[in-house]
Amino acid sequence: MSKACPECGDKIIGRIDKKFCSDGCRNAYNNRINKDSKNLIRNTNNRLRKNYRILEELNPDKKTKTSRAKLVEKGFDFNYFTSIYTTKAGTIYYFVYDQGYLPLDGDYYALVKRND
Fold first, then answer.
1. How many CA atoms lie within 13 A of 101 on its CB side?
2. Could you name the domain of life of the organism this protein comes from (predicted)?
3. One domain for residues 107 and 61
4. What are the phi and psi torsion angles at 96 (to 5°)?
5. What does the pLDDT read at residue 36?
6. Which of 7, 40, 65, 68 has the highest CB neighbour number within 10 Å of its CB?
7. How would residue 2 be classed by pLDDT, with cut points 50, 70 and 90?
8. CA-CA distance, 113 to 101, in Å (whole number)?
9. 3-class state of residue 55 by DSSP
10. How far apart are CA 91 and CA 72, in angstroms?
């Protein structure tokens, strides 16, 4: 009984538990299966990635302060974040993965990096 490659349909030669005929077929299959199939998902992930890069660039020392204008100038979108953290005192931090920001008075933001 011979098995067929799920990507190209060719006969698989080799180990009994082999699933693909080649590395190329394995990569093509996994890329096709794992790609972001919907524009909404792709656009959201791109926006989160951009926000993360902006926070990382403006916060090299893991704790700093910046203005809203500087964030907006770089293209930061305040509608996209991955989590919210509320302290016991009620302070609300917004996080994009491990990079966070805290709204301060006067259109300023404290930028922080969450420790692992």
1. 26
2. Bacteria
3. yes
4. -115, 95
5. 64
6. 7
7. confident
8. 9
9. helix
10. 22
Token readout for 90 is 């009620």
- What is the DSSP pairing of strand 108-113 with strand 63-67? antiparallel
Phi, psi of 104 (to 5 degrees): -115, 175
Are 76 and 108 within one domain? Answer: yes
Side by side, which strands form the sheet with 92-96? Answer: 63-67, 108-113, 99-104, 92-96, 83-86
Could you report the per-residue pLDDT of 49-107, keeping only the tens digit for each?
999 999 999 998 889 999 999 999 999 999 999 999 999 999 999 999 999 999 999 89
Residues 21 and 59 reside in one and the same domain: no
For 79, the domain range is 39-113
Structure confidence at residue 35 as a pLDDT band (50, 70, 90): confident
Which amino acid, one-letter code, is at 24?
G
If phi over 0 gives left and psi between -120 and 50 gives alpha, with beta otherwise, what is residue 66?
A: beta
pLDDT for the residue 114: 87
- What's the confidence (pLDDT) of residue 37? 66
What number of residues does the chain have?
A: 116
